[in-house]
Amino acid sequence: EIVPQKSCSSGTAAPPSNPSLEQLLDYIVDVSLRKIVEAGSYHRFAKCYSHLYKAQPELTKCVYNQLISHLQTSFREEIQDLKEEGNLSVLFKSLDELAEEEDIHSAVVPYLLKQHRFLQKAIKEKEEANSWLAEAVLAGRKRIADLQEEIRKSKEEWQAVAQEGQQIVSSLDEL
């Protein structure tokens, strides 16, 4: 029986763990070729070429094996040429990096959102404290203004009393 040839990927029956997109494509190609070989069995081939099969069964088997091998090789070469012409390796790598970045985002974003909520709460608390302090400062300024007004009035009263006292002393001096 024909065993599919190995491509650039692992060539195993199971897909590679955490594969890149290019490895995944190679795996799909291998599986597809294996399915094609299984679907187009030697018995069908022999039936189509029954005259050759009856005359030389071993030659028929050899032709079949060479045909399948050639088809697999040609198919893999065509896929490789397409990958090279389309610069698919670079594109696959870029897509893999984007997927990895997306994975990082999915892990980091919840943490950042939690941090954002924490910082928003801290900002709100600080704003409330600042508001209270601003009110206290305004009340302090008002108290200072009130005290300055009281001092001004007391000073004016004292000056009036002092002036009145001087007038009294002057009037007493005249007497």
From TrEMBL:
GO terms for cellular component: MIS12/MIND type complex; nucleus. Keywords: Cell cycle, Cell division, Centromere, Chromosome, Coiled coil, Kinetochore, Mitosis, Nucleus. Signal peptide: none annotated. GO terms for biological process: cell division; chromosome segregation. It comes from the Eukaryota. InterPro entries: PMF1/Nnf1 (IPR007128). Residues 137-164 form a coiled coil. It is found in: Chromosome, Centromere, Kinetochore; Nucleus. Its main location: nucleus. Pfam families: Nnf1 (PF03980). This is Polyamine modulated factor 1.
